[in-house]
Design brief:
Belongs to the protein kinase superfamily. CAMK Ser/Thr protein kinase family. CHEK2 subfamily. It comes from Coemansia asiatica. This is Serine/threonine protein kinase. The chain is built from 10 helices and 10 strands. The protein is α+β, with helices and mostly antiparallel strands and about 290 residues long. The chain binds adenosine-5'-diphosphate and magnesium ion (MG). Adenosine-5'-diphosphate binds near residues 28, 43, 81 and 104.
Amino acid sequence: NLAVHRMEPCLFKQSYLLADHLGKGAFAEVRVAINRVTGKRYAAKIIDRKRITQLEKRKKMDENFRIETSILSRVRHDSIVQVHGVFEERDYLYLVLDLASDGELFDEIVSREFLKEDDARRVMLQLLLAIRHLNRLGIVHRDIKLENILLEDKSSLRIKLADFGLAKIVGEQMFMKTVCGTPMYVAPEVLTVRKIGRYDNLVDMWSIGVVLYICLCGFPPFSDELSPPPMRDQIIHGMYSFPSPYWDTVSEDARELVHLMLQVDPRNRITVDAALAHPWLRARRQGIRWTI
Ligand code: ADP
Ligand code: MG
């Protein structure tokens, strides 16, 4: 029962008090929002409609906001940010979300350099369960990366997947033509715009493979900072390696899972269910508190 408050001026500010800045994207600014009645803290994703003067662009932005809102409000999962309110005012659009108060997984990896295998496994398990949930709803996220995986609690590494700004419902009418997502994490079939039909949701699995790789060693598998060819070609040809000494101590099972996720042909790429059944993820699962 998500009420959408349309076009009523300042309704958001009547209900919430804006506090600290949490992050900034292309169009959105994200700030802590405190409910004036309950005192509970949320994250508000705020879009400044005034910034876009061109009517067509503004319409597009409104539409994207509605898509993000409608997709996110269908989803209810422990590891995915939940929507608590939507406000559409003349000048601003607001999306009130669960607050992931420990920031981006990106920063946590930068500060730890990389994750121990047990910690990487925790993150992976939650991420895969979140994606399995999305798959079942026919939703493809399309922008999974370390900046969009947020931490509710950094010591236990409880994650919340965020930013459904590029998400899509997989429909019969579409194979995903739009080249979107962040280059470093983008699947080869997105770059080559291959017809892939029912394999659409596997673009998320590729990105998860990139995330797992970075978790385990602290640097990305594909990058323009490496020797040529350009990153785009590295991705299209699946050119990456497990350089020594960084990967020397990483288990064979973990490397195998990365390898299965980073399959150039989506038909060969591991599915969510198969990934969840992979030996690396089955190890030590007993000790994990959340439900599977
Ligand atoms: P964009 O679509 O512009 O990338 P995001 O939804 O990814 O917007 O938000 C931008 C940044 O704001 C995120 O990378 C993160 O640092 C912060 N952020 C977003 N949502 C939350 C949240 N629910 N809790 C805490 N921080 C958040
Ligand atoms: Mg983002």
